[in-house]
Design a protein that fits this description.
about 575 residues; alpha+beta; Butyryl-Coa Dehydrogenase, subunit A, domain 1; Butyryl-CoA Dehydrogenase, subunit A, domain 3; seven-stranded mixed beta sheet; two-stranded antiparallel ribbon; 11 strands; about 10% strand; globular
């Protein structure tokens, strides 16, 4: 049996080396909370020790309890009968184990029964849970719903709902997608009507592909403004499970079998407004999606970690040509690349969560702090981290989920024919990974979400600091390659902007986002190699692999060949 935190050297390195002092001090009100809560930290070292102990606990639960149950949960899944969903007994046991460990309100304020942990630490938990059973993360990870109520709901709503989430008494679902809307949330049609006599809202319509649609508490995006057809007519509502909210069916999916994905019918369901009218999509869902992107990035990373370890173990035991196959160059080179990609995705993900935590901390201070304590620097940091988070969250999701699909594909390849069989976990990882670059926004939509910040050079302040680090020897040589990529990226971005061709802009968006990712992740890998010399090999391999990929995309972008668009269309017409 294993502990998924203590057996993961890279995750431990990440916790030890992330610079979290600033955000933890902000989150803990300069540790004033210790006066009111005996379990609140008194200083940063105290906080870090608390994080480590809880991560070790989650690692133990994940490795010793959740993981051994995962195959049965995948094979049997939840049961649906008479519009009622019943989760598998082992899934219920998993949730009980997490609840008994006090992990129902990880990020919620202590006054509502939460732990007040940063997003970064919660994300590490979701990565480990995902490594054990990716479908369980879809239940554990829905704590973002409570976070949304905490951020935008009224105090009365917070008092009523958040302690229930923190204790584990309530679970949640995020009801956004509809049969005809998919990713186009502006076209949501589920109708919200207000009875002006009683001041009661009611919801009518359909939702589809709703994760944990059988939940007790639902956050629902609905059209509250009569005569509208775009995002400005949408509001966010809270409703609870009731006879008028019908689970019509659950989907039969390729993977993530342990959680129910439901189609819901709203038959005049009583609901209450969360936040302000008409801000459901433009503010609340956008905030919710940032959390969802991080959660799915962690899920993808956890699946990839599991797939790599399964492949590594198999390769160390399987003999071919009178030797174990992990001694064969085609195999060990594949395994090495899998591990390098996982480490690269992890360093990007937790740099992203740190920026999200800083954004959350400064946003809370600016919007809810005492006016006399808010400085112009606080407001500037709030704006800066908001912009950075808006770029890094889609970039991280695109990078981590595509990486996970590659690693799981290669995991089966290492196993050979046995990997295609149900007797081995590798086929489950492959199936589970496939949804990660689709739900909560496809990779293509993540590129669209990130490109604006890339054109505006939002990440330049971060990259300036990374570029100025005191690299020596091999790292200095590698850094020159990254500096050169960055120069080319600036040229490419300016070239596309000056071209003023929206179709060409859309066509090369994917390449520009991937190019920016190569640069930023390369800098992060070099930075981490400065902190631990053993990581120099990972940095070298990543940068040397990134340079030719970057250059290929650069050549395409700089070709300026608008006929590429017509050529693609002609291919479709053949």
């Amino acid at each position: 049996m294993s502990n998924y935190f203590t057996d993961n050297k890279d995750l431990q390195f990440t916790l030890a080396n992330l610079e979290l002092e600033e955000l933890v001090a902000l989150r803990e009100n300069n540790y004033e909370q210790a006066k009111d809560f005996d379990y609140a930290p008194e200083n940063f070292d105290d906080a870090k020790d608390s994080y480590k102990r809880v991560l070790e606990l989650v690692g133990e639960i994940s490795g010793e309890k959740i993981a051994p149950r995962a195959r049965v949960v995948d094979e049997e899944g939840p049961h649906f009968e008479n519009n009622k969903v019943t989760y598998h007994p082992l899934t219920v046991k998993n949730l009980d184990d997490l609840r008994q460990a006090g992990l129902g309100g990880v990020m919620l304020p202590r006054k509502y029964g939460g732990l007040n942990f940063p997003v970064t630490i919660y994300t590490m938990m979701t990565e480990m849970v995902s490594r054990a059973d990716a479908s369980l993360q879809n239940l554990f990870g829905l704590q973002d719903i409570a976070e949304t109520i905490c951020e935008f709901g009224s105090e009365e709503q917070k008092q009523r709902f958040l302690p229930r989430f923190a204790s584990g008494e309530a679970d949640g679902s995020m009801d956004l997608t509809e049969p005809d809307s998919g990713s186009d949330l502006q076209s949501v049609r589920l109708k919200a009507t207000l009875d002006t006599k009683t001041n009661q809202w009611y919801l009518d319509g359909m939702k589809r592909f709703i994760t944990n649609g059988c939940a007790k508490v639902h956050l629902v995006l609905a059209r509250s403004e009569e005569g509208t057809s775009d995002g400005r007519g949408l509001s966010m509502f809270i409703c609870e499970a009731c006879p008028q909210l019908v689970v019509r069916r659950i989907e039969h999916k390729l993977g993530i079998h342990g959680v129910a994905t439901a189609e819901l019918q709203y038959n005049h369901v009583p609901a209450e407004l969360c936040g302000q009218r008409k801000r459901g999509l433009i503010k609340y869902v956008m905030s919710l999606m940032n959390g969802a992107r991080i959660g799915i990035s962690a899920q993808a990373l956890g699946i990839a970690e599991a797939a790599y370890r399964e492949a590594r173990k198999y390769a160390s035991e399987r003999k071919q040509f009178k030797t174990v196959i992990d001694k064969l160059p085609p195999v060990f080179s594949m395994l090495a690349r899998m591990k390098m990609e996982i480490i690269a995705a992890r360093t990007l993900l937790y740099e992203t969560t740190k920026m999200v935590d800083l954004r959350n901390a400064y946003n809370s201070k600016v919007e809810h702090g005492k006016p006399e304590e808010i400085t112009p620097e606080d407001k500037e940091r709030d704006k800066l981290y908001t912009k950075i988070a808006a770029v890094l969250t889609p970039m991280s999701k695109a990078f981590a989920t595509e990486m996970s699909n590659r690693v799981c594909y290669q995991g089966i390849q290492v196993h050979g024919g046995t990997g295609y069989m149900k007797d081995f976990n590798s086929e489950r990882f492959y199936r589970d990974a496939r949804i990660t670059n689709i739900y909560e926004g496809t990779t293509q939509l993540q590129h669209v979400a990130a490109i604006g910040g890339i054109v505006q050079r939002v990440l330049d302040p971060l990259m300036d600091k990374l570029a100025a680090l005191p690299y020596q020897g091999k790292l200095k040589r590698l850094s020159t390659y990254v500096h050169e990529m960055r120069k080319k990226q600036q040229i490419a971005v300016q070239y596309v902007v000056d071209k003023k061709d929206s179709t060409y802009y859309d066509l090369v968006t994917e390449r520009l986002v991937e190019m920016e990712t190569y640069i930023f992740v390369s800098y992060l890998m070099l930075r981490d190699a400065l902190k631990e010399p053993e990581r120099e090999l990972f940095a070298e391999r990543y940068v040397l692999d990134a340079v030719p990929e970057f250059d290929r995309s650069y050549a395409v972008v700089m070709s300026g060949d608008v006929t590429l668009i017509d050529n693609y269309r002609e291919l479709l017409d053949y």
